[in-house]
Specification:
- The protein has helices at about 15-25, 40-45, 55-60, 80-90, 145-160, 180-195, 205-215, 225-240, 275-290, 295-310, 325-334, and strands at about 5-10, 35, 65, 95-100, 110-120, 120-130, 140-145, 165-170, 200-205, 220-225, 245-250, 255-260.
- By secondary structure, the protein is of the alpha/beta class.
- It has 2 domains: about 1-95 and about 245-334, Isopropylmalate Dehydrogenase (3-Layer(aba) Sandwich), CATH 3.40.718.10; about 120-240, Rossmann fold, CATH 3.40.50.
- α1 (about 15-25) links the parallel β1 (about 5-10) and β2.
- The longest helix is centred in the middle third of the chain and has 17 residues, at about 145-160.
- The chain is globular.
- The two termini are about 25 Å apart.
- Belongs to the isocitrate and isopropylmalate dehydrogenases family.
């Protein structure tokens, strides 16, 4: 049967970069059927809900979703939609690869790092949130389970093995966060021993930040807990030219949501300035997930050519063009 994909254009720059990705998927002959659904501010304005039931049903039904960034309104009563989606569909792993392209403004070349971020536990578990009545004290709970840690670290090693990668670095803060990060590190060491063919390393998160900036080529796969993974993956995006270059896949046991790492970029929304690369690369991850590696490779190499020749690239890449011109340059090559 024809693969159906749930598409959430999202807020801000979302609709324009998602449109770019869909045109490219169609151009390489993917033959998907798309079910469009709303979420975020767009949905709130239309239906009075950030995450309408129909959207949830479509995510569940089709199992594969391509999603633009969503604006989470700041303030009382709104939990992040992304956090809700990841929890609701048990999307326990967040795979965030960064890859250098020549011709960007990046400070490094030949970067190829995948951050595997635990996506449902840790500081983002949403548990134990208490604010005292007078607002002078606030607390929240971080929860790590052996099951959750084992699942994510095993996912990282299996991915490393499948993709012929050499090294997995577990990043933690077990020296201070002895109970939570301590459990994560303990489990990471145990899992690592089951993969003698892959080099296992471990690093404390603050040192890891410094090492990523000073000597990023020592890293291959990084596996870590939710908050650290969120931060480190943006740092990694900075190594290859910024957030416009960084895709992410939220993967559970039978459901997946592919998206850009960045947000809705309100500062450039509606100006045809957004770099669509991150969402295009998210759709490449989606094709790989669907065992359509040949089409994924076609898109990746067209992207490489557009960026490396600087043919109609966007401002964040040092070019002078907009989302639509960048997309046209991609479509010509495909
Ligand atoms: P942001 O990622 O939207 O923007 C940060 C900076 O990067 C801005 O200067 C923006 O112009 C630039 N940028 C981001 N994507 C770009 C692209 N494709 N091309 C060129 N430049 C790009 O982060 P910010 O401003 O902190 O968040 C804005 C909203 O997005 C918030 O409501 C936040 O909650 C939401 N958000 C949503 C995410 C998601 O849906 N996955 C992830 C992160 C934030
Ligand atoms: Mg983030």
């Amino acid at each position: 049967a024809q693969q159906r994909i749930t598409v959430i254009p999202g807020d801000g720059i979302g609709p324009s970069i998602i449109d770019s990705a869909i045109q490219i998927l169609d151009k390489v002959g993917c033959d998907f059927e798309y079910d469009y659904a709303d979420a975020g501010i767009t949905a709130l304005e239309k239906d009075g809900e950030l995450l309408p039931a129909r959207t949830l049903e479509l995510i569940e039904q089709n199992k594969v979703t391509l999603k633009g960034p969503l604006t989470t309104p700041v303030g009382e009563g709104f939990t992040s939609i992304n956090v809700s989606l990841r929890k609701q569909f048990k999307l326990y792993s967040n795979v965030r690869p960064v890859l250098s392209f020549k011709g960007t403004q990046a400070r490094y070349e030949n970067i190829d790092i995948i951050t595997v971020r635990e996506n449902t536990e840790g500081m983002y578990s949403g548990l134990g949130q208490v604010v005292s009545e007078d607002g002078s004290e606030a607390q929240a709970m971080s929860k790590i389970t052996r099951e959750g840690a084992e699942r994510i670290v095993t996912f990282a090693y299996e991915m490393a093995r499948r993709e012929g990668r050499k090294k997995v670095t577990a990043v933690h803060k077990a020296n201070i966060l002895k109970s939570t990060s301590g459990l994560f590190l303990k489990v990471a060491r145990e899992v690592g021993e089951r993969y003698p063919d892959i080099e296992s390393a471990e690093m404390i998160v603050d040192n890891c930040c410094m090492q990523l900036v000073m000597n990023p080529h020592q890293f291959d796969v990084i596996v870590t807990t939710n908050l650290f993974g969120d931060i480190l993956s943006d740092l990694c995006a900075g190594l290859v030219g910024g957030l416009g270059m960084a895709p992410g896949a939220n993967i559970g046991s039978d459901c997946a949501i592919f998206e850009a790492v960045h947000g809705s970029a309100p500062d450039i929304a509606g100006k045809n300035l957004a770099n669509p690369t991150s969402v295009i690369l998210a759709s490449v991850q989606m094709l790989e997930y669907l065992n359509m590696g040949d089409k994924a490779e076609k898109i990746r190499s067209a992207l490489k050519d557009v960026i490396e020749t600087g043919d109609r690239t966007t401002r964040d890449l040092g070019g002078e063009h907009g989302t639509t011109d960048f997309t046209a340059a991609m479509l010509e090559r495909l």
